[in-house]
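[step 3/7] fold_predict: job queued, chain A
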Amino acid sequence: MPELLIEFFSEEIPARMQARAADDLKRLVTEKLAANGLSFSAAEAHSTPRRLTLVLDGLAERTADVREEKKGPRVGSPEQAVAGFLKSAGLTSLDQCEQRDTGKGVFYFAVAEKKGRPTAEVLAEIIPAVMADFPWPKSMRWGTGTVRWVRPLHSIIALFGGTVLEGSFDLGGNQGKLVFGNSTRGHRFLSPDAFTVSDFADYKAKLRAAHVVLDREERKAKIKADAEALAAKEGLTLSPDDGLLEEVAGLVEWPVALVGSIDEKFMDVPSEVLITSMRTHQKYFAVLDKAGKMAPRFVVVANTQTADAGRAIVAGNERVLRARLSDAKFFWDQDRKTKLEERVPRLAAITFHAKLGTVAEKVTRVQILAAEIARAIGADADAATRAALLSKADLVTEVVGEFPEVQGIMGRYYALGEGENPVVAEAIAEHYKPLGPSDTCPKAPVSVAVALADKLDTLVGFFAIDEKPTGSKDPYALRRAALGIIRLILENGLRLNLTQVFKAAHGAYSVGGFAAADSVASDLMAFFADRLKVTLRDQGVRHDLIDAVFALGGEDDLVRLLARVKALQAFVGSEEGANLLAAYKRASNIVRIEEKKDGKSYDQPVDPALLTLAEEKDLYGALTDAAATAKPLLAQEDFTGTMGALARLRGPVDAFFDKVTVNAEQADLRANRLRLLSQIRATLNAVADFSRIEG
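[step 4/7] structure written:
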């Protein structure tokens, strides 16, 4: 079957847009093919700085013939119904309809047969439509044209079965049309001349000959391998940086890795500053020595090869880097002339939020909360208070002003240089952590206390002014803050009563117009329940079990909650637990139905004197024993033991349902048996709300 090849050739597409654009091209074309009844066997999209490419295999040469039928009114129906049917079917006379006996009478049917079209015709319509619908994050017009594209377009390849499709894309204004063709260009400098292609294999081979590596993953692999080889040649290793690798792959069509030197005079500047400056402004890769420290080398990836093996390129980049790092070194030297504590008052000039005060006020609140948390988890409260005081001071330094990515990290360097306690310095660096699921979580108690206090203050404040996340919108990253708190608590096994901590954070605010502390704490616990599901889902924990435990109310110790949830998951995953869950649901349904019918509750104590059958006596005894056994085990937080006590109910419950008629004729026996079923529900619900468990 014929192959479709599309290429949009333009000026340089921003690196951050390329991969998404390739996916969008593939999605839009395949959706429009499907809408026209066309299928394919394979599709792959590619992107380079100057082109988007799509190739599809297995397309039919024509769309299929389509027969459409529309059932109308019964023969003999009123004239008005018949006229309405003819109009909706686009017909003028009943002679154009078929009459069929459906077994339920004779009905009119309108039958329309649509012949298939050549696929080439369909594709000639699809391509301009895709271009018109393309969802670029940012686009532009150029010249006198009215059409928007990410950058000025130069040509469009549109080949189907090796033949150029008849069509074009109108740029609007006086720009005219870009007629579909079979030619493109290679590397801007190394192979600028146009050439024609016949199919994808020819296209890819000629691009490579014209110094263009089409496949993005191949470019990434080449950049990484060449950079690692250059570093290894000097006894060094490349610093891993997947984000930079992804970006650089979008900047070059013919990657050539080169190694340059950093002046030794800059090496006393913190490596994080050097690396941030190089990767942010220059897109250079850092190199590490055998001890894992930054070496005075960098790798730059050029988009061309030169006769002098890149020496001029390296020299030029070294010259630019010296200017960049001179600024960084100047900022570093200047910043160390002023102590962090002396910078704290300047935080009063930075607004944290219009309704929540300044950053200086936030620091004061975090100090109070960090000390309370530190005492609760056995950390040094004085060190936590000191770290909280200095935690934001580096925000008003020159280095952080130039490189915001190193906030916190620079605070640690300044603190250590001023002779602060290393524990305090580390807490300053780590109080923003964890920033995401792949980020490390602080373990040092003082760091944990300050990190928790900072995030809790933010969450409580925004919830108190009703700035909660909605749908996909979370402008203040409150979901990330909640996930960070959950990780800090669970990974460090902290026994914190979150409701009390929420109220303590609420009490640290002095501004008015806040929601009440109880209301904020309640909303935050519900919010944390949802976030906890996200965290535990990756660990294979079912969301309904989290709901079942939270539904008990009053559970705000995440470590205890997780232990209960995991014991519950093991229990319901066992044969005894699964059967007991089914029995619970059966008992609950019976009681609910009968309570609704009778208009009263059956949650009163069972009367042992009315138990007449051995099976109901056994069940009553088993329930009594299970409740008595489970109570101290729950108090000891032995949730596995508690589940074991409940598992012993399976036999008596099964026997009860096999042998006992709940709705007995005698009213007192019936009521007592319903109370016994209600006791099954109550006994199990002491551990979790089993009604929330699915299955």
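[step 5/7] annotate
The mean pLDDT is 93.
Residues 69-114 form one domain.
exit 0
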